[in-house]
Amino acid sequence: MTIQIAPSILSADFCNLERDLDAISNADLVHVDVMDHHFVPNLTLGEPIVKRICEVTKLPVDVHLMIEDPDRWAPEYAKLGAASVSFHMGATHAPVRLARQLREMGCKACYAVRPAEPVEPIFDILDEFDMVLIMTVEPGFGGQKFLANQMSKVRRLRDEITRRGLSTHIQVDGGVSPSTAPTVAEAGADVMVAGSAVYGAQDPAAAINDIRDRAQA
Ligand code: DX5
Ligand code: ZN
């Protein structure tokens, strides 16, 4: 399986964003965490900054919305040029309607689940999504410890996708590093988000290659 690496700019230097976007040009996607102080206990950035990121980077922009009322806001990020938008099971009111709206706008739709949420309720609407995001930390902060207990969820989802012959991507977000990447890949995820493991490294581009190599080993 081809593994895609999506560095999270949550761990970048927000005063040197252009430099830090250049530093990850060998990545497959750039993951942008939007938090609102309500759905999660942290506040990051919103539309004006996502707009500039979409203009500046050559990578597809993967927006992870950790906000209340994504039904209202997700399409705005698609309009700005996001290649994919993730919204949370615990926040959305009408996931199918929202996914269809995003796809009609040419944006990939991704459904995100937190560690205590089951993945099975997504099975009945799986074909409405391009990607499912399995959180391997409680959303809100970078640098938390990887929750290995989420791997059975990834496995159950991979089995369902394979059984039905779907091409849905499985993204894992939280605590991904060169040491946890093999476990994540073995469970069946193909898109890996990494914040602190990339931007905390001396050489972010080398860290990306390292995660990719260990995942594909
Ligand atoms: C956490 C965010 C993640 C975060 C991951 O709520 O969704 O994308 O940046 O950071 P690391 O890789 O450091 O766990
Ligand atoms: Zn994220």
From TrEMBL:
<keyword id="KW-0479">Metal-binding</keyword>
<dbReference type="InterPro" id="IPR011060">
    <property type="entry name" value="RibuloseP-bd_barrel"/>
</dbReference>
<dbReference type="InterPro" id="IPR000056">
    <property type="entry name" value="Ribul_P_3_epim-like"/>
</dbReference>
<feature type="active site" description="Proton acceptor">
    <location>
        <position position="33"/>
    </location>
</feature>
<feature type="binding site">
    <location>
        <position position="8"/>
    </location>
    <ligand>
        <name>substrate</name>
    </ligand>
</feature>
<dbReference type="GO" id="GO:0006098">
    <property type="term" value="P:pentose-phosphate shunt"/>
</dbReference>
<dbReference type="InterPro" id="IPR013785">
    <property type="entry name" value="Aldolase_TIM"/>
</dbReference>
<dbReference type="InterPro" id="IPR026019">
    <property type="entry name" value="Ribul_P_3_epim"/>
</dbReference>
<feature type="binding site">
    <location>
        <begin position="173"/>
        <end position="175"/>
    </location>
    <ligand>
        <name>substrate</name>
    </ligand>
</feature>
<feature type="binding site">
    <location>
        <position position="64"/>
    </location>
    <ligand>
        <name>a divalent metal cation</name>
    </ligand>
</feature>
<feature type="binding site">
    <location>
        <position position="175"/>
    </location>
    <ligand>
        <name>substrate</name>
    </ligand>
</feature>
<feature type="binding site">
    <location>
        <begin position="140"/>
        <end position="143"/>
    </location>
    <ligand>
        <name>substrate</name>
    </ligand>
</feature>
<keyword id="KW-0413">Isomerase</keyword>
<dbReference type="GO" id="GO:0019323">
    <property type="term" value="P:pentose catabolic process"/>
</dbReference>
<feature type="binding site">
    <location>
        <position position="33"/>
    </location>
    <ligand>
        <name>a divalent metal cation</name>
    </ligand>
</feature>
<feature type="binding site">
    <location>
        <begin position="195"/>
        <end position="196"/>
    </location>
    <ligand>
        <name>substrate</name>
    </ligand>
</feature>
<feature type="binding site">
    <location>
        <position position="173"/>
    </location>
    <ligand>
        <name>a divalent metal cation</name>
    </ligand>
</feature>
<dbReference type="GO" id="GO:0005737">
    <property type="term" value="C:cytoplasm"/>
</dbReference>
<dbReference type="Pfam" id="PF00834">
    <property type="entry name" value="Ribul_P_3_epim"/>
</dbReference>
<keyword id="KW-0464">Manganese</keyword>
<comment type="function">
    <text>Catalyzes the reversible epimerization of D-ribulose 5-phosphate to D-xylulose 5-phosphate.</text>
</comment>
<feature type="binding site">
    <location>
        <position position="31"/>
    </location>
    <ligand>
        <name>a divalent metal cation</name>
    </ligand>
</feature>
<keyword id="KW-0862">Zinc</keyword>
<dbReference type="GO" id="GO:0004750">
    <property type="term" value="F:D-ribulose-phosphate 3-epimerase activity"/>
</dbReference>
<comment type="pathway">
    <text>Carbohydrate degradation.</text>
</comment>
<keyword id="KW-0170">Cobalt</keyword>
<comment type="similarity">
    <text>Belongs to the ribulose-phosphate 3-epimerase family.</text>
</comment>
<protein>
    <recommendedName>
        <fullName>Ribulose-phosphate 3-epimerase</fullName>
        <ecNumber>5.1.3.1</ecNumber>
    </recommendedName>
</protein>
<keyword id="KW-0119">Carbohydrate metabolism</keyword>
<feature type="binding site">
    <location>
        <position position="64"/>
    </location>
    <ligand>
        <name>substrate</name>
    </ligand>
</feature>
<dbReference type="GO" id="GO:0046872">
    <property type="term" value="F:metal ion binding"/>
</dbReference>
<feature type="active site" description="Proton donor">
    <location>
        <position position="173"/>
    </location>
</feature>
